[in-house]
Amino acid sequence: MAILVIAEHDNSTLKGATLNAVTAASQIGGELHLLVAGEGCGAAAEAAAQVAGVSKVLVADNAAYAHQLAENLSKLVAELGKDYSHVIAPATTTGKNVMPRVAALLDVAQLSDITAVESDNTFQRPIYAGNAIATVESLDPIKVITVRGTAFDAAAETGGSASVEAVAAVHDAGISAFVGEEVAQSDRPELTSAKVVVSGGRGMGNGENFAILEKLADKLGAAVGASRAAVDAGFVPNDMQVGQTGKIVAPELYIAVGISGAIQHLAGMKDSKVIVAINKDEEAPIFQVADYSLVADLFEAVPELDAKL
Amino acid sequence: MKVLVAVKRVIDYNVKVRVKSDKTDVDLANVKMALNPFCEIAVEEAVRLKEAGTATEVVVVSIGSKPCQEQLRTALALGADRAIQVDAQDQLDSLSVARILQKVAEEESADLILLGKQAIDSDNNQTGQMLAALMDRPQATFASEVVVEGESLKVTREIDGGLQTLSLKLPAVVTTDLRLNEPRYASLPNIMKAKKKPLDVKTPDELGAQLSAGAELLSVEPPAERQAGIKVGSVEELVDKLRNEAKVVA
């Protein structure tokens, strides 16, 4: 049976997380179809057709899917999903929003945030903020799954030559409407896919002090993240939060500055390849997971690090 | 407007969990349990709606074995009016929980159903969405602001790129993000009063809810341990290690 992957996109380009979900799907095995649902999403569909390993792209181009409202999109995905063995989406806020609804419409369970594929019906996923790894077997005829992007490599963006097919079905439930959006602007790489992440915590003291992290990040081509403490204190916007309830990252290098390392935060970054912690508290739990620990005042250490790199 | 809030009893968020030696699950014996933090935020939001005169009654419901009555009493002490325990095994899957909640919501004719966005034990982030689908109601997940405007609801949601605002027709399902509010502490007099508030016990059978079993837990293991790192004495040494040992910076 074929696998349906729900593409995440902004109508013109595919979001990186889609490519990781494609890799997870290819590990399950079977023909791979990609669904691009949106409004004026022709360019995203073209991009989807180029992705290596994808044999067919389904395009649902309609105003009803303009903002991926869960009520409309879930009906479309559930209708299409009946003909597939697996329906897969990246575990982004969009995937998390829509997929459980799809599962309920199909009357099946949903597996969230899988980190490994063991077979076509058995998967691993973290539970208890990543402090335990569960191996779960799905008993349902259709497996509805969201994929943790950082646990799978991205599929190649080129090399594929999928056919593109329009989907006529329009589901407009008419019970919800998009009002507006406030998107944080940044020239830095996206947090979840950055090779290097520099994060600040409560130790930063205030929002202005994040400037020294931003300077360091620009030198390293890094994204800037934050702990929940820094977000709750209003230092930075919440879409920068790394952790169980924020974003999950696994970069090559994670630099934690003024972050104590609560369980909640570790859940979002402990799969990073190399972890550096800079903290003046020798007892901070972050030092237990850091490859390189520096006990120092961050206001001296960070500018010095910036100067020496 | 009647508000229904679903709450879950989970391990306290500060506890470091241990996996059982036979790898069947995590060890919950003699571990401190608490109200799931996201559920606490949902209760707080409901109580604020009542204090604002928007909600007329706040009903809390929990699904699980008898000890979850403790968490229901906590919710009552925080300001909920009455509680329902649906007596079932703990750790039911999300679809079963959603089916039970659907029956309770229909019986109560709730106008707004509030849940946490995820439980910190299973980390599923599914129940609210499934409930909304089963009831064919609109949903607003990861809410950081909820405003009732007559027959509709304006909700600001936390999304990957920032914030998004939706308008939903009531009745609706909303799941809470951490930023929605700061839950209050229950005062001693309120804890005493909560003991006298009504708490009904029902069963899934009475409610006519069918349980599902779509997935089987095969094993639970501790995650791979990270190698203990080293302490560097200076920024210079750190840069040297990153360049020459870890080779992660140029």
Automatic annotation (TrEMBL), chain B:
Q: Which domain of life is it from?
A: Bacteria
Q: Which PANTHER family does the entry mention?
A: ELECTRON TRANSFER FLAVOPROTEIN BETA-SUBUNIT (PTHR21294), ELECTRON TRANSFER FLAVOPROTEIN SUBUNIT BETA (PTHR21294:SF8)
Query: What does the record give under GO molecular function?
Result: electron transfer activity
Which GO BP terms apply? carboxylic acid catabolic process
Give the record's subunit note: Heterodimer of an alpha and a beta subunit.
The molecule here is called: Electron transfer flavoprotein subunit beta
Cofactor(s) needed, names only, are:
AMP
State what this protein does.
The electron transfer flavoprotein serves as a specific electron acceptor for other dehydrogenases. It transfers the electrons to the main respiratory chain via ETF-ubiquinone oxidoreductase (ETF dehydrogenase).
Q: Which UniProt keywords apply?
A: Electron transport, Transport
User: Domain Electron transfer flavoprotein alpha/beta-subunit N-terminal: where?
Assistant: 23-211
Family classification: Belongs to the ETF beta-subunit/FixA family.
SMART domains recorded: ETF
Which Gene3D superfamilies does the annotation name?
HUPs
Q: Which InterPro entries match?
A: ET-Flavoprotein_bsu_CS, ETF_a/b_N, ETF_b, ETF_beta_N, Rossmann-like_a/b/a_fold
